[in-house]
Design a protein that fits this description.
About 65% of the residues lie in helices and about 5% in strands. By secondary structure, it is of the alpha+beta class.
């Protein structure tokens, strides 16, 4: 039985040699590429080299020398040395004249700045960039970016290792200056569609409140958008639903009916109401926000009102009064 086990140990050694050869062969072909050299963690390989040497010495020093065990550790140690050699950048064009040890030292120095990246990713929200974008839009919703608001947002970005491009945030805001509320609401909806953890969403709600209070004043724009965003968050968390509001767009003639059906079909849903028809928006959580949406359609000279779901059944008077004009 012992001989049978020993035979399998030698087979395992051969398989280990083949494995390490294939791994080295893959990287050896690309050893001249800097991106390949940079992908090797020399710290990790050094931490692996020491145990390989210790175990090799242990297997050879035993009274009953473990030759397969010793050879397997030698193979691992050789593989690690090759990876360190490649990771140093020795084979990258123009680097060899700097010396091997100098290259290894520089590679270790470069790796110091990256050593915490994986750990940070465990604590970084899955949608960190989207969250920073939402915070930036909220801070600018009143057309002012207070220094305290900026520092507040930066504290999160620094913790998540995100570089904030304030110039881009300002430019994006300027592009959507006509309807920054809708853009911000869409950003929140897009974030929620990624199915973030409920605890994260709840914390985001608290952070948004802290943000709008950061400059010791809450503008009308901030209060308006917070009421709407809070409604979206509460709905996502399954909390008791607050009052919701719909925007009802009522065509007054056939021409308007065709225009609304063509231009606004992706924004509004046609509903049969009390013998007539109206186009209803998605639900909003702030009556003031719904009124702002109304203004978009009123600007097209289309009759538009804000209604609650329980009022929709009572819209007959609204529809009929304008059908008879």
């Amino acid at each position: 039985m012992k001989n049978f086990v020993e035979q399998f140990i030698w087979v395992a050694l051969i398989l280990s040699i083949i494995e390490n050869y294939l791994v080295i062969n893959k990287i050896w072909k690309r050893k001249h590429e800097k991106v390949v050299a940079d992908s090797v963690s020399i710290y990790g390989k050094l931490f692996g080299l020491l145990p390989a040497i210790i175990f090799a010495l242990y297997f050879i020093a035993k009274t009953d020398v473990d030759v397969p065990g010793f050879l397997q550790r030698v193979v691992v140690a050789i593989s690690i040395v090759v990876f360190i050699w490649v990771g140093s950048g020795w084979f990258v064009r123009g680097e060899r004249n700097r010396g091997l040890f100098s290259l290894i030292r520089n590679a270790l120095k470069s790796e110091n700045s990256e050593v915490g990246d994986l750990a940070k990713s465990f604590f970084r929200p899955s949608s960190a960039d989207a969250i920073i974008d939402i915070l930036g839009q909220v801070a600018l919703i009143d057309q002012e970016l207070d220094k305290r608001e900026k520092e507040f947002i930066k504290s999160f970005a620094d913790a998540w290792n995100i570089d904030i491009d304030w110039k881009k945030i300002h430019e994006d805001h300027s592009k959507n200056e006509a309807d920054p509320f809708q853009k911000l609401r869409n950003s929140m909806q897009n974030y929620l569609r990624t199915s973030p953890p409920q605890a994260q969403v709840e914390q985001l709600g608290d952070v948004l409140i802290m943000l709008i209070k950061a400059d010791d004043k809450i503008s009308n724009e901030e209060q308006l958008i917070m009421d709407e965003l809070k409604g979206l968050i509460d709905e996502y968390l399954g909390r008791e639903k607050a009052s919701v509001f719909h925007v009802a767009v009522v065509p007054q003639d056939t021409e308007q009916e065709k225009a609304i059906g063509t231009l606004l079909q992706n924004e509004l849903k046609k509903e049969k109401i009390a013998g007539g028809s109206a186009y209803l928006s998605e639900p909003f959580f702030s009556e003031q926000y719904a009124e702002i949406v109304c203004e978009r359609y009123r600007a097209l000279n289309i009759f538009t009102v804000v209604v609650k779901p329980d009022q929709i059944s009572l819209s007959k008077a609204i529809v009929n009064s304008f059908k008879t004009r």
